[in-house]
Amino acid sequence: MNERPKPPIAVALHYNVNGGGAPRVVAKGAGQIAEKIVETAREHNVPLQEDAALAGALSKLDIGREIPKELYVAVAHVLAFAWSIAGKSPPPASSSRPEDQTSQTARLPALSYSRFS
């Protein structure tokens, strides 16, 4: 059987630590669009993680939509990877001290993609 290779896909995520809610899909695409998303991410030093299964699941979501609970663990791994690449550690989830709130303001872009040929 001669199967056609699947086009590469890319999905960009954004997570605002203090914004509440889950990470959101901010860009997605297949083929040349995916290649452009990855190229743009590299130009802006956005951490990239190859995960074809996760990219496939995330690509089914609408842009701007929060990730569903079923993907929390997988996306948490991507975000942890992004934090480590950025040389940072995630701030605590909540703090009552105002000075901690300021230091917690962080936005984290990350990208999950499938292999490019």
Provide the low-confidence segments as ranges. Answer: 95-106
Overall 3D shape: globular
- The beta-strand count equals 4
What are the secondary-structure elements, in order, as H or E? EEHEHHHE
Largest sheet: 4 strands, mixed
Rg over C-alpha atoms, rounded to the nearest angstrom: 15 Å
The percent range for helix content is: 25-40%
End-to-end Cα distance: 20 Å
Approximately how much beta-strand content do the residues carry?
15-25%
Number of helices: 4
Q: Could you say which structural class the secondary elements and strand pairing correspond to?
A: alpha+beta
Mean pLDDT figure: 77
Q: Order of strands in the sheet with the most strands?
A: 2-1-4-3
Description:
With 117 residues, this protein is α+β, with helices and mostly antiparallel strands. 34% of the residues lie in helices and 21% in strands. Strands 2-1-4-3 form a 4-stranded mixed beta sheet, sandwiched between helices. It is globular, with a radius of gyration of 15 Å. The two termini are 20 Å apart. The model is unreliable at 95-106 (pLDDT under 50).
Sum up the structure in keywords.
117 residues; alpha+beta; 4 helices
In short:
The chain is α+β, with helices and mostly antiparallel strands and 117 residues long.
